[in-house]
Structures are given as C-alpha cells and as structure tokens.
Amino acid sequence: MLYRQVKRQLINDIQSGFAAPGAALPNEKDLAQRFQVSVGTIRRAVDELVAEHVLLRQQGRGTFVGKLDRERFMFQFFKIVPRDRPSEFPEVRLHKFAKSRATQMEAQALGLHGNQWVFRIENVLHLQGQPVIHDRITIAAAMFPGLNQASFTARTTTIYGHYQAAFGVTIVEADERVRAELVLPDSAQLLNLAMPSPVLRIDRVAHTFDRKPAEFRTSIVDTRNFDYVSRMREMT
Amino acid sequence: MLYRQVKRQLINDIQSGFAAPGAALPNEKDLAQRFQVSVGTIRRAVDELVAEHVLLRQQGRGTFVGKLDRERFMFQFFKIVPRDRPSEFPEVRLHKFAKSRATQMEAQALGLHGNQWVFRIENVLHLQGQPVIHDRITIAAAMFPGLNQASFTARTTTIYGHYQAAFGVTIVEADERVRAELVLPDSAQLLNLAMPSPVLRIDRVAHTFDRKPAEFRTSIVDTRNFDYVSRMREMT
DNA sequence: AAGTGGTCTAGACCACTTG
DNA sequence: AAGTGGTCTAGACCACTTT
Lengths: 236, 236
What we know:
2 copies of one chain form a homodimer.
Chain A: H1 2-15, H2 28-35, H3 39-51, E1 55-58, E2 62-65, H4 70-76, E3 80-82, E4 91-101, H5 104-110, E5 117-127, E6 130-140, H6 149-153, H7 159-167, E7 173-182, H8 185-191, E8 198-208, E9 212-221, E10 226-232
Antiparallel strand pairs in A: 1-2, 3-10, 4-5, 5-6, 6-9, 7-8, 8-9
Helix pairs in contact in A: 1-3, 2-3
The structure holds a DNA duplex.
Keywords (chains A, B): DNA-binding, Transcription, Transcription regulation
GO biological process, one term (chains A, B): negative regulation of DNA-templated transcription
InterPro entries (chains A, B): Bact_HTH_transcr_reg, Chorismate_lyase_/UTRA_dom_sf, Tscrpt_reg_HTH_GntR, UTRA, WH-like_DNA-bd_sf, WH_DNA-bd_sf
C-alpha cells in the first residue's frame, strides 16, 4: 500500500498549500526519488488523483494541481442544463449574506457539534436571462475564517474556486438528494413562479478530502425549461 | 494501446456469450499468453472493466463476469431511496405489456431509424408496501427477439439481468434527465395521488457497450417519502 | 500446498510539448 | 534536443482462498 501513502502525501501538499492550485508537480522521476519509491508507484497514486480530478496530467507538459474554475465546476458540479440547447454557465446574483447559528439539520449535515457559527448565503442563478435556481448555502464559519460579504462578492472565480484559493478548502465530491415539491412563497417570488408550481429541490452536501463535509446547499430549480442530468457509470 | 485491444476482445467474449455472466475468466497469466501480451497489460484492461463493473475481481479466487443481479442493480441503477431509512429493493408489478411502433421520440432515444417495432412495458414499483414509481419502458423489438409477456413475467432476476441472461444485452451505463412536474391522471391513479401533486419525472436512456442505447424509460416518482440520490465524483 | 489476484520494481521505448 | 507523461515488459514478492 505504498501508493496510498504517496497519495496521502500529495493530498497533504495540496491541503497545506505547498502545492498551489494550477501549479505543476515535480516530474514523476523526481517524485519517485523524493518518496523513495519506483515511478510505477508514483503513477498509481497520481492515477487515482487524476481520476478524482484533483490532479490534471498533460502529456509532454507535466502534472498540475486542479483548479476549481468554471470549466471544472460546469462539468463536475453543475447539472442543470437547458432541455434542447447546449449547457451554459449561470449568472450568479447574491441575494443574502448572513452569519448566524447552525440549525440542528445544518449541524448534522456539516458534522458540527452544538450551535456553531455558520455563514448563510443565498443566490439566484440566472440562465438565458431568466432566474431559474434559488440556492441557499450554509458553511461553517470555523472552516472559512474571515469570510465576509465584500470579499465573497469580489471573487473572480466560482464559489468552489473561492473556497479553494482563499481558504484551502478543495471540494472533491458531493452527495445530492433530489425531490419534487410545490414552490414556497420566497422562492416563487425570486423565480417569478405562480403559486402552485412544481419545482425540483436538491439538497447537496459537498465534501473536501476524506469525505469531510464542507458545504450544505439547498437548490430550488424551475424545471420548465431545464433538466437535472445524471450519468450512471462506475460509481466508486 | 495494446490494452485497448485486449479490453475490446474481453467485451466481445461477453457479448458473444463465450464468457457467460457469473463465469470465471482464465487467470491473468493464461490471458497474457492467449493475447501474447504481458500480465501488466492484461491487468490494465481488466482494471478498466472492473471499474465499469463489467468484471469483478476477488483476490485469491479469480475474475468473474459481472451479473446484473439485485445487488448490482440497487447500487448502480436504482437511485430512489427512503428519506430516513435504509434502501430497499422494490416490488415490481407489471401493469401493461404491448408491442407497437416506435414514436419519433422513442426512435431518437434508441437510435432507431423509421417506425421500428418496440416493446412497451409499464410497471408500478412498490416500496414499503406503497406504490411509489410508475415506469414506462421502451425497447427495440429487434434487440430482444422473441420477448413476450409470459417469459418477461417469469423472469427470476432483475429486468436488466433478464436482458443480459436471455438476450446477451448487458446494460453498463445510463443517462438520466430529471425534472419536477404535476402528475398526470394515469400516473396519479396508479400511485394513489391527489390531482395536483408534484412528482419527479426521470427520462433514462440505458446503454450497453460502446454507448449503444438499449432501453428508454420514463419514471414518475412520488417523492413525498423518497429521494432521488446522486453522487458527484470522478465522472469519466 | 497450489492457485489466484494485489503490489512494487526497474527499465525500455513511444508520443507529445517546448525551447 | 531535452523534458514530460503514456505504454509495455518481465519478474519478484505478498495476501488471500481453496483443496
């Protein structure tokens, strides 16, 4: 299980900031020397991290730490697509930003004990010029020290890219539970929906390494013109 | 790209029935000799098929052709789970079985040209004793020659297991599009729902090897007590 | 004890990117 | 031309299952 130890070390390098998002790793021979293992063992460890999109290999160029930019967010974490059109990056408008105590449900989803402080962020996502998604995000204040509305709004990347660049929190996977509901008044107003309308509700827990929960998000989606897409394959 | 050729050969062995579901493959050394490659190349090809759940490796015992039994169906293809309970295998009740001409939408989903014959199968799936899912399945008659209601009903395994055992059609992946709708009268009656009720609608295209479409299925789900779950990771 | 897959090694050669 | 990752080889040794 040498390759497991190598993988763990590489993850540590990323979490500690020693290997920054977008930066190149040493070549495989050098890594092999550093860890005192063969190149094949390095490749096995890197193989897994590439499969998880944590690292990115480019033949002839090198191996790089994955950045949570728009492209990666769209293909890995954004599953709302137009019914008969190509996919599109949403326009995100901040609706609310607050700091308060976690509810019991939030604490459970985020693995907190007691009434820890959390940030609560609400966004309305627009597609093709129309409001389509109402997001409520909850994150533990302890994991994102110093976060505030100004810095959050001033970010130049995706929300997950901001978590990664500003707080060293790399989101690597997410679990979602989806159901159909009648829209509630607050979301109806934000999404310009009549009052009984069916909407999709998505509860997502996003995790960083070692399946540690980092974000809880509930999305209300108007699916008159958009679908939630899912591909069933592999599923490790 | 030798390992690609080996993988293709192994898939052919499964599709042709030469390697039957549940049967053991020759050991890695013998495979290496048969294909005139090294064991490492065999391992690489088998690695990928194991990741796709087409093959199953058991240390000390051997490598086996994956069977689409209840366990595999549940963890790979059945994503409707109780909100606060462990998952459960559904009781499937046949509601309709018919042979007719494909609609344009079905023909497109299944990659047919013209008004080919299709089987249309409707099921009601029960969970915890209650009707929860209304399935409409469409499959091309040409891909399932000789299928009839008697043999379909008499199957002793899952529907996908039946495709595999009786017709050599192995489902390996599925694409789904999910949305919220108000239930229509026919589904409302089958699921005992009042008449405006929000339900989940899932359009699924299931594929066999080489992404060849094999089944189109629309599921209407009562999500008052159940969720559609999805895990975002890897996503090759 | 014999047979299976699981891990690791050391090295060769190829394909691609960059200067 | 030099440096990177991608493929393939041949073999050693380990862990597990079965007889």
